[in-house]
């Protein structure tokens, strides 16, 4: 899954990718997170606490947000 992250003034800030890696992190449903800068450099990757802390609220939906997010 890929998500574009924008600043308040609508400039691309980060590109977040999450994908599954078998046996990587069973407690987090094996999701692996990577946050890329717009130029392509990886800023954060692996078990990213900020990602996990946000997505734990939808752990019952395989850590995936669906529908409208407010």
Distinctive features:
70 residues, mainly beta, four-stranded antiparallel β-sheet, globular
Task: Lay out the secondary structure.
Layout: E1 2-6, E2 12-20, E3 31-36, E4 42-46, H1 49-55
Antiparallel strand pairs: 1-2, 2-3, 3-4
Number of domains: 1
Please trace the helix and strand order, writing H or E for each element.
Answer: EEEEH
Taking all Cα atoms into account, the compactness measure Rg is: 13 Å
Arithmetic mean pLDDT = 92
Strand order of the largest sheet: 1-2-3-4
What is the total tally of β strands?
A: 4
* SS field, number of helical segments: 1
Largest sheet: 4 strands, antiparallel
The global form is globular
% residues in beta strands: 35-45%
Structural class of the helices, strands and pairings? mainly beta
The N- to C-terminal Cα distance equals: 19 Å
Report helical residue fraction: 10-25%
In terms of per-residue confidence, which ranges show pLDDT below 50 for 5 or more consecutive residues? none
What would you say this structure looks like, in words?
With 70 residues, this protein is mostly beta strands. Helices cover 10% and strands 36% of the residues. The chain has one domain (2-61). It has one helix at 49-55; strands at residues 2-6, 12-20, 31-36, 42-46.
Question: What's this model, at a glance?
Answer:
The protein is mainly beta and 70 residues long. The protein has one helix at 49-55; strands at 2-6, 12-20, 31-36, 42-46. 10% of the residues lie in helices and 36% in strands.
